Amino acid sequence: MHKPNIKAAYNAVKKSTIKHSPEILTGIGIAGMVTTTVMAVRATPKALELLKKEEDYRKIDRENGIPEQFVSEKISNIDAIKICWKCYIPAAITGSLSIACLIGASSVNARRNAALATAYSIAETSLKEYQNKVVETIGEKKEQTIRDAVAKEKIDAHPAKESEIIFVGDGETLCYDVLSGRYFKSKIEKIKKAENDLNKQMRDEMYISLNEFYYEIGLPAIKIGDDIGWNIDREGYIDLRFSSQLSDNDEPVFVIDYGCGPRYDYRNLM
Fold first, then answer.
1. Domain residue spans of the chain
2. Given pLDDT bands bounded at 50, 70 and 90, which one contains residue 72?
3. How far apart are CA 2 and CA 77, in angstroms?
4. For the whole prediction, is pTM greater than 0.85?
């Protein structure tokens, strides 16, 4: 019979806890805020009882002839706080701990996002250097041949289904967007015009989101489309690359790729 490896189990639990710490802290924070509300509601009858007793004491004092400047029948807001604050100590402590958990979860997520952004930037730089070296070594024509082969593999792996093709209002050319993996029918001239218009717009506004490009060519926005984009200060012009391929039913498909892909930190490069 094997003895349980306590150290391994402990390390596994520790690793899992660290990995899911934002979710754990958020859950504790939410539960704490709910608990705080419940505790505050339960403390209110005790506080009202203390206020009622204070009113009774003051009424007796006034009946015994103590002047109003020393004992007022009406309890002021400051007096109410002095009388009742102890009732809400448990709720205040729970609320403070809950807020600390929520702030902690946000802080962990911020650090992780910063690390991911740094890793993404390093990977992007390495990829750009690699692409430039490939073009320099084998030439633009052979590099385009490789791009065409990659594009062919992508549409073979994700064939067009009639029910999934997006009609953007004009044009009958079947297009495939590499970034979003969507098929749509449009005009190549319209797509190129959107590219040129947005590149001109970037000269004034400095950056453009991916969803702005999709809006220009008539495609619906995607979830991360506002989080990634192009910035003119970092080789940020939209540089579309087209590849003409045949689908599995021998229909021509224009595959849209990006010579300069959108970045996550496109708003922070100025």
1. 6-113, 139-268
2. low
3. 67
4. no
